[in-house]
Design goal:
Elements: E1 4-8, H1 13-24, E2 28-35, H2 42-54, E3 58-63, H3 98-113, E4 117-119, H4 135-148, H5 150-153, E5 160-162, H6 170-179, E6 194-196, E7 199-201, H7 207-219
Parallel strand pairs: 1-2, 1-4, 2-3, 4-5
Antiparallel strand pairs: 6-7
Length: 231
Amino acid sequence: MSKSAVVLLSGGMDSAVCLALAKRDGFALHALSVDYGQRHAVELEAARELARWAGVESHTVLPLDLRPLGGSSLTDLSMPVPKGGQHEGVPNTYVPARNTLLLGLALALSEVKGARSVFIGVNAVDYSGYPDCRPEFIATFQELANVATKAATEEGNPVEIHAPLIVLSKAEIVRLGVSLGVPFKQTVSCYDPAEHEGEVVACGMCDSCRIRAKAFLEARVPDPTLYAVRQ
């Protein structure tokens, strides 16, 4: 019987590398993407393309509209996305408790699919300061997973939460992705992208664009991203 895993797949760079790692390690893949009303919904089409590239067993795109909650410029279009790095502390692109919600959904899907592993591409090194991207968060969620499901409590098979990118720099993630053949051109990182003649155009000014461009530069890998503005 082959081992299987649920992979949270946003369509961004980190989740794509995470998907490729799980594929390399021989897991049968069940991708999970969540349509939470995000401003950058083009990520979901990128996720579909990546799922096809990886040859996943299944790809679930789950609607979970977080727009009524507000609190983030990614779900509230009246809030501007910070540009040019001009902010202090955790930026307003933070979606409250998003990774807690996503991991909870992945945990549920893992029980349905009989998967004993969940992969998430969080990164605690070069990121925007989100509290739910830290090792402490992943370790604490693992404790929850150990007692939260029937598989864990009755069958003694708790799900293992994998965060293989959490201590890597973004440049290291790029180099790892290249070694795994990740099609970075199909990934979308921008918080405020546009579309032009069928192509996704990244703004080039938001935190995610700046971090992505810097990562490719430091990794000495050509950046396939089409930016509206280059820093």
